[in-house]
Every structure is written in C-alpha cells, then in structure tokens.
Amino acid sequence: MDFRTNVDNQVYGVRATALIVRDGKIYLCNSASEGIYYAIGGAVEVGETTEEAVQREVREEIGCEVRVDKLAFVVENAFCQSGVNFHNIEFHYLVTPVTEPNTTMVEDNEKRACEWVAIDELDRIDLKPAFLKTALKDWNNNLTHIVNLEKH
To answer: Does the keyword section mention Hydrolase (predicted)?
Structure first.
C-alpha cells in the first residue's frame, strides 16, 4: 500500500524521484505516445523511507541499482493530467547508478524508451515536472523547496 489517496477527481500522494545524473546528462523516460519525458520514480509505500522508495522504484522500473547521494528538491506539486487533479509532495534525490539502467521500461502496459538527455538541452523537451528544466542547471547544491501550483 502506498501513500496515495483518491477523493472524487483529486489524487493526493507522496512520491520519490531519482535524478540519475552522469556526465552532464540526466536519465529520463520518454512517453512517446504523449511526447513527455519524466524522471524515474513513484509513490512511497507505507513503512518505507523516501530513500528506500527511490531505490525500489529505479530497480522496478529500469532494473538498475543506485546509490542515493543527496536530497535536492522537495516539491509541492499540484497539476492536472488526463482530466485528473493531482497534489503530490515529492522528494527528488540525486542518485548515482551502480549498474547500467535498462534502455526501456514498461508502465501501464506501454513500453517506453529511456535515454540520457543533456541537462543543457532540457528546455527543448516536454519534461515533467517542468521545474527540472531550470532547477537542475541552476542548482546550488543546497536542498531547495519548490511550490508548483498549476491552475486546474
């Protein structure tokens, strides 16, 4: 069971995300059907720390073991996707791959490609959450709190 609650058309959750960064690039998943890139991660399970969730999600989604280096961003993220309103508290960790990640993952019965994208090129893609486009380039190595409240 994870930290996610549905009330009417609203989903509330706690998520942990891996920012897999190496040589000026970040490893992202590409949802080709929607044209959206996103970082690997998912809901935190009950009884699990956010660090444990990051390691589990990366292992489950791309078959890779990672070392958790540092919590970079805590994000209050409210947005609408496919007609559903989300409000997540998200923990975004910088991680280092210990093993090589798979080049594809399967999510919601859809096979999705994964690839290394130059951090300097993030503004050219549709990246979710969008704050990563600039926050990674400008990050000062200190934990940063971000509030993203998109209008529904």
So the answer is: yes
Mean pLDDT value across residues 59-70: 95
Q: What is the band of 2 on the pLDDT scale with cuts at 50, 70, 90?
A: confident
Q: Which is nearest to 29 in space by CA: 69, 61, 4, 57? A: 61
pTM: 0.91
CA–chain centroid gap for 75, Å, is 11
Q: Exposed, middle or buried, 92 (CB in 10 Å: 0-12/13-18/19+)?
A: buried
Give the residue, 31 or 121, on which the prediction is more confident.
121
Q: Please give the residue that has the higher pLDDT: either 129 or 66.
A: 66
Q: Which residues contact 90 (CB under 8 A, 6 or more apart)?
A: 14, 15, 16, 17, 41, 73, 74, 75, 76, 77, 129
Give per-residue burial for 31-59: e unless 16+ CB within 10 Å, then b: beeeebbbbbbbbbbeebebeebbbbbbe
